[in-house]
Amino acid sequence: IAGLLAAIPAAAASSLLAEGSHSYEETAAHLRKAVGLTLALLLPAIAACWLAAPLILALFGAAYAANSVDTLRVLSLAALPLSLNLLHLTVARIDRRIRRLLAIAIATGGGALLLGAVFAAQFGVTGIALGYLVAQSVVAAALTARWWLARETPA
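The structure corresponding to this sequence follows.
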């Protein structure tokens, strides 16, 4: 279910890649549009998923819902930093910065695995989701801060 939320930024990233590859000079403008569209669609979807989690998961049975609501809620929140990371990945693809692509993939994937394993011991399945959220958030914050500082630095 949380994977459906990831489809929103994935579609925006795909569009950004097509537009940015076609007109490289306008990548910044396309990126702003992609961020705006992603947030406009994703924020209400996250809120709906958060609020409706018990109802959605009840379709799979009461026991499943009782044990999965927190996990779905954490994973739905992770869609926000995931969207930033997908857009950063896409810009790296447009710029043909392979090392950056690898660094982002290793940091998010490795971080999620490591933190998920650590948090699983205390929080179970929800801990794995929490590890994913934290890894995505840390990488998104670092990439966005780096981009913001580079943008603000005089040439």
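The helical segments are 2-22, 27-58, 62-94, 98-123, 125-152.
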